Known about the structure:
Elements: H1 3-6, E1 34-35, H2 39-44, E2 56-60, E3 65-76, E4 83-94, E5 102-111, E6 116-122, H3 125-128, E7 134-141, E8 152-155, E9 157-161, H4 162-165, E10 168-176, E11 183-192, E12 195-198, E13 202-205, E14 210-218, E15 231-240, E16 246-256
Parallel strand pairs: 9-16
Antiparallel strand pairs: 1-3, 2-3, 3-6, 4-5, 4-7, 7-8, 10-14, 11-13, 11-15, 12-14, 15-16
Amino acid sequence: MNLSSRCRPLRSVPQRGSCCAHLGPDHPIQRPDxxxxxxxxxxxxxxxxxxxxxxxxxxxxxPFRLNPEAEVQVRNLSSIxxxxxxxxxxxxxxxxxxxxxxxxxxxxxxxxxxxQVMLKFPLEQAILSGDQRVGVFIDLEHPYDAKAIxxxxxxxxxxxxxxxxxxxxxxxxxxxxxxxxxTAFVLQVIEDSLSATVSQSSITLAPFAxxxxxxxxxxxxxxxxxxxxPAYCSxxxxxxxxxxxxxxxxxxxxxxxx
Length: 258
């Protein structure tokens, strides 16, 4: 027998782990970035937040009152990836800080790269016929969202012209502990061209108990406006846990027309 005809050279075997290295993507997977004005993101970036969200419109002025529907602006900040079948959850709560929220509606949307859209959420008649101050909360959901910190936004505010409220007044903000444990509300005031102080720096509430914080707000004498061209100022109350994490906030808007 010709042994040379039975023996063939062995083929080289690639080292384990190296045969599929070329299958890896040349670039990272691109993901959408759904976004709305986020108070948590503002605080994390060292920026003073407002609960008069620029992305949520729910009221009119003269007097301050609710609109029949709230308008909510949502953006996809990714310039490359689309956000298909994203969920926009619209919830409301009683005016104040810490109150339980009720989911009112959910919309499913698709946003192209860098697209923004204005959504409208009708308010229920029970809300429209009640307190004209209401908390609005937006939660964005997408399984591949690249940045979670800008997926939640809030609007909790009220306002008046100085011709209605005066230039020196008190503002009462309801507080509620919606938990099974006693909670300390550590309070902080953010001013915008106003003089504002809070009556207490901390309030401890029993489980599911309510109270309020009172702010003394004064418009500086040098700030003036007219009915046709009012000046705009605000004061915001922040409530945090003892560890510094955010409970919530509320903003008092002042339109100075005198």
